[in-house]
Structures are given as structure tokens and as C-alpha cells.
Specification:
Layout (H helix, E strand, L loop, with lengths): L3 E3 L17 H12 L2 H4 L11 E7 L4 E7 L15 E7 L1 E8 L8 E8 L3 E4 L5 E4 L6 E7 L5 E7 L5 E8 L5
Parallel strand pairs: 1-2
Antiparallel strand pairs: 2-3, 3-9, 4-7, 4-9, 5-6, 5-8, 10-11
Length: 176
Amino acid sequence: MIDAIDTATIPTSSHLPSLRRRTAGRLVRLARELSGHTDLWAPRVQFAHDSRYAVRVAATSDYEAWLLTWRPGQSTGLHDHGGSPGALVVLDGELDEATLAPPRRHTPAAMVHRALETGRSRAFGPHHVHDVRNTGTVPAVSLHVYAPALETMRRFVLDDEGRAQIVARERAGVDW
């Protein structure tokens, strides 16, 4: 299902923090710092009925930040970030991240689950494939930072043998 994405004007500002190096630790610190800038994201919190809601809340030459909101049961589906590393912080509620673990010799890939409660953060590398879902009973809100900004995303399904198969390629400015 296609996500509800707000394509309103993307805020850019010189008062936003910079990101000089794209390390996992710096991305997490940036996501946490941006979560403290409630003026960026709090006025944009809303929930879509059929799918998760996403709106870009900041963009600089180094990174972009997206606010995502989730009703119970909503998810991203299995996807990557087109080579962009990133980080997320859960602002409210609880999310479950199912990460595709690489297959080992003679065994299929496995999904590894991680619960992310309010205040928890997570960094991920450029080849990270995951599905994020609200498995709770109340809505959830999260902030995601990508450096560099997303240009493409690939959507996957697992075949009968547990191998990830690409089912769609999405492009910034075209598909979202």
C-alpha cells in the first residue's frame, strides 16, 4: 500500500544542526537533536487511516529528516534506503523493526526483530533492509534522518526460500 506522504514545502533552515561526518553515532545524535526541535515536527503530526503518514520536516545539503506517524498495524513493508545510511528515534509509542539478516551458507535469510520504545534510537548503514511496524495498541510517532537525502528506495518480498526479491523501485520526486 502506498504511504500517505505530505508533499508540502520542505523546510530548510540555517539554524538546523550540521552533519560533518556520516557515522552511525553522529546520525543518532543528529536524530536526537532534531527530535528536540519540536517546532520542526510537532505541528505536522497527523495520522492517515489507510497507511502510515510521512512528511519531510527538514532538508540541508548534508541530510534530510522525515516525521512518520503510525496507527496500530501500519508498517513500511520490507525496503532499503537506496544506499543512504540513517537513524531513527521513536518520539512516542512503540515500533517493531524487523531487519533482514544476511543468509549464511546453506540457510535462508532471517528476520531479526527489535522493539523500539519511546526514546529509543537506531542507526543503520547504507545496505540496511528492514520493515518497521507499529505492533502496539496506540499510535506511534518517529523521526528519521537520512544522509545523504533519499534518492531511491527498493521494496522487497521474501521468496519461499527466504531470499529477498526486489518487487519495486521508487524514486524521489516521482514516487514520493
